[in-house]
Amino acid sequence: MDKAEILSIFQQVVEKPFNAYLERWVSGGGKICGYYCTLIPGEIFTAAGMVPYRMRGAGSEDTGLADVHMSSNVCTFVRHTVNLALEREMDFLSGIVCMNGCDQARRAYDVLKQKTKVPFHAFLSVPRASEERLLPWYKEELESLIEGLEQEFSVKIGPEDLREAISLHNSVRRKLIKLNELRKGLNPPISGSEALTVTVAAHLMPLNDFDELAGELLKATAGEEVPRNYRARFIVTGGELDEPEFLKAIEDQGGLVVYEDTCFGARFYEELVSGEGDPFTKIAERYFYRVPCARMFNSFSARYDNVEQIKRDYNADGLIAQRMKQCIINAGHLYNFTRRSRANGMPTLVLDREYLAGGYGQVKTRVQAFIENIESKSKKGAVR
Amino acid sequence: MTVLGKDRGKELETIYAGVGELLERHQGDPDSRAFNAFLLASKMATEGIVAAMDSGVPVVSYNLGGIPEILHALGDNENEVFPFSMEKVVALQSLVGDYKYNIEAIEIAEAQGMSSDVCSADRATLGNLAKKFLPEITCSVFVTAPCDSQTVLAESIKEETGEDVFLVDIPHLHGEREIKHVAEQLKDEIKFLEEKTGKKLNWDRLKEICEESNRMIDQALTWLDLRKTVPCPQTSKMLSSMYILLQDGSGTKGGTWVASEFAADAKERVMAGKSAAPNGERVRAIWFGSPTWYNTGLYDWMEKDLGMVIPVDMFSYVVPEMYVDTSNTETMLHDLARKQIYMPMGRHFTGLPDYFIDDLVRAARDYKADCALIAGHISCKHAWGMVGLLKEALREADIPALVFEFDLFDPRVAPVETLKQEFTRFADDIVLPRIRK
Asked: Residue A98's closest chain B neighbor by CA?
């Protein structure tokens, strides 16, 4: 298969809640467990013989049903996801596992638990700081999840199952890391919107299938350079971002997105689980100690330093910090981030957005202005 | 004007002048005994802030969801450390000063890049930090309750001041396992505080402080019991100040005295057959959610014009689980952890929806309420995220409810006139016809 064919498959995977790969998996008797945050280890579901499935709202057309239970004061990512579930578009799930990622996501769980027919529900209380003193609690929560899955689905999740799951998840991560490395080049073989499509697809299909396709994609892109007429290279940061079309809107204006420091982006695949030692502990440590997301307290400097490093590694000109309207946690993150980045001279554009809003008229205008601003400051000239 | 002999900047001076004027106006008014006690506490709180600045003692900031007992017990003597909740200044500015300074602070925070989605208490605090009139802090202790905005504030305070913050992670559920987990964290918090302030925790003093806290809870529970009387004896606007008392005055003689004045006032009024509603009580409502601190005159209007009284609200919902067993260090830490988890607001806004719903339904039953007012502060995403489940539960319990949107510190979101219209329609069209039936 060539690159276009593989990307087209991934594109189909991300468009709707249910896709052909899941259909095949379910019709073969396989089970799928939905989850709702990057701090919930997918390896545990894989070790239970299930497909880890990151719940999201793509394919939702409105939030009417969710609005009955929530309110327009809740973010549109949450409401679209809940809406799909209430429309029974997620009835293919055998379980839903959520956590206290944010106040809005945990209330999504309350609604999903009470108002959907999905048979298994579990909730993790994940500490809000990646500090050693809190790791045992996180591990207890994961142990409880494992017990729940074993009981509900009559499976046994032993160390060997976890080791195999680590191996598969790491294989996927390695491929995504390699793919992302290609974006460091001057003329990367894939665009930002294409890269995000691939990463989002990894959340939504059996990982063996994804691993195989991602391997094909790496072969198809090996050594390839695609001349791109971009005027600035960007890192996109923030929380939830699973809409490749948002990145396309940026790229259509002359920007090239070279890295997604987001939940569906690098937070998913950066940092492998160590293959040495007790696999359960290693899984817990990878998720708990990795570069923290904005919900984790005492973590701002680590996140900021990480972005600075990425900016250097990927030769980025600036940062686009996007946030879903109503998202309190990322409001705080971006407040601190923009203040420090501006003080340090890092060009930063903050974009508040609604989920599945389409159009992106305002995004385009602001990105154009941002690019012009970068160009005028750097005196690089109009086109690379 | 000066406060304790020095110029302190317009913000603190306005609070101080405001509380002074209110005290003068209400002094000797037999109907204002509880309110006067609260005003006196506000005056002392303001003086406490400036005294801490003058004395140079270590200032430890803690958040709106936190409790101060451990902070008070640092050092062998009283006042060796000043526990300081920055949001208290925002509350005082609204209640006794001039709310416009809060608006100014909110606008500063927004101009610095903070989204208006974040709670106005936290935005105003960031604005106040930028104005640089608050005491400089030595370190902070924050709990992850009641909401996301509070953790945003904690991280931002750290970034702004450069001083370390210790985080007490409040788990999702509120059972024994969770209490023990928080109690273990309190041990680490103590180590952190001792290192940062240079003051050792004095366990004998912590015992005395917890005993003082218990006396405040005694008074609060007595007070709440008296407020169950029909007609409700005491004005609704006193309710939410109980939260400030718990958060700021727990473990202090002053705090206990104010709570005892609340109870004594309620008792006097019950004995005299007085009603909070001057023209007669027509509707009893449970107020759940944040108070309209930008304009507490709303409560006076409700009582006078609608005959609508609030015997209890979420901020005043003290429960016996807030007592601390002082038998030994372990029981103290265990029960302080439980108190922390069971603090009003934190208890309601974290964890299961049932924590919120059950208290509300129980309050409606215990206080013989006719209806509920669900006060939807716009940044309370946890509450908005379960509003449908809440409405269902209230329908099932046959409690008519008005859900309204506002901001507790910012009148621009929903001016008081808008709320008056909503309350009038709710009382006239929904609640009173049911009562008449």
From this structure: B172
